[in-house]
Design goal:
The chain has helices spanning 8-20, 23-30, 34-48, 64-88, 102-109, 113-119, 171-179, 201-209, 225-233, 247-252, 280-293, and strands spanning 53-56, 59-62, 95-100, 124-129, 143-149, 158-168, 192-195, 219-222, 239-242, 264-273. It has 294 residues and is of the alpha/beta class. The chain folds into 3 domains: 8-88, Winged helix-like DNA-binding domain superfamily/Winged helix DNA-binding domain (Arc Repressor Mutant, subunit A, Orthogonal Bundle); 92-151 and 268-293, D-Maltodextrin-Binding Protein, domain 2, CATH 3.40.190.10; 163-265, Periplasmic binding protein-like II (D-Maltodextrin-Binding Protein, domain 2, 3-Layer(aba) Sandwich), CATH 3.40.190.10. The mean pLDDT is 86.
């Protein structure tokens, strides 16, 4: 005798596709391939003997029956999820392991951990800081926050935000230039600090700036972003600040951006998850990160 209830996995896929208007967008939540999500929707429709979706341009929209079905099951599904999370709270399921580069952790995520604890007090984050791209399955890691060129970002990744880069300097340097009545471009004739990760970054910025500027001054190189920014904050020279690394320096007033902050680098900060369906506790962390840092 056939099971009178559809599978829980098929119901999850139905709700995800319904809320996001398409299979491809639902994969970001379910961490499944488009083929797997489509198969689950087809299985559910076959089980019910009814069409739940119809094509709408490049996406999908609910049929009238599908809309009714969503209204009937969305509430009970949420209650099941909350009940499961409550029961699982004392166990390891309430821990989420995140891997990210040490500099990103130090300048970006760790300063926000108190906000995280207030927003999600029942979830504990375990940070694995490394410059290596660890295999999430083999190392039992839930999430990876990675820095990638836009063209290299996989379809299933969740983009947190796009990186922008712009010159920054100690505010006293900028003030002295202003008091002397000199154009702000004068600041670029002094010492320029270079991040070895992006050795040509000043030439790139000059081309994006769209004006002829003098970049022939002395240059000093540093191994990492936090070193470059700290040197600039100490008045050692002008650095190219990159969001989000530079945000704590700007918010504290230790650095200023005399040329504005409008230049995109083509890099993205993205969230990657291990294969299989995402646990609801992991999804809560993803939602917090994308909301907190968007």
């Amino acid at each position: 005798m056939a099971d009178p209830l559809p599978s829980f996995a098929a119901l999850q896929a139905f709700i995800a596709v319904a809320h996001r208007g398409g299979v491809r967008r639902a994969t970001e939540v379910l961490n499944l391939s488009e083929a797997a999500v489509s198969h689950r929707i087809k299985t559910l429709e076959q089980h019910l003997g009814q069409r739940l979706f119809e094509k709408d341009g490049r996406g999908l929209r609910l049929t009238d029956l599908g809309q009714r079905y969503l209204g009937m099951i969305a509430g009970p599904m949420d209650e099941l999820r909350r009940a499961s999370d409550t029961i699982a709270a004392p166990r390891k399921a309430r821990h989420v392991t995140v891997t990210l580069p040490p500099t990103l952790a130090g300048l970006w995520l760790i300063p926000a951990l108190q906000d995280f604890e207030r927003a999600l007090p029942d979830i504990s984050l375990h940070l694995v800081t490394t410059t290596q791209c660890l295999d999430l399955e083999r190392h039992d890691i839930d999430l990876a926050i990675r820095y990638m060129l836009e063209d290299a970002v996989p379809d299933h990744a969740r983009v947190v935000f796009s990186e922008t880069a712009f010159p920054v300097c100690n505010p006293e340097q900028c003030e002295r230039c202003t008091k002397a009545g000199e154009p702000v471009d004068t600041l670029l004739r002094g010492r320029l600090l270079v991040n070895d990760i992006h050795p040509d970054e000043w030439d790139w910025w000059s081309a994006a700036y769209g004006k002829t500027v003098d970049l022939t001054g002395e240059r000093r190189r540093f191994d990492a972003s936090h070193m470059t920014l700290e040197a600039a904050a100490q008045g050692y020279g002008m650095a190219l600040g990159r969001r989000p690394m530079v945000d704590p320096f700007l918010s504290s007033g230790r650095l200023v951006a005399p040329f504005g902050q409008a230049f995109e680098t083509g890099y993205r900060y993205v969230i990657l998850t291990r294969s299989g369906e995402i646990r609801s506790v992991t999804q809560s962390v993803i939602d917090w990160i994308t909301t907190r840092f968007a």
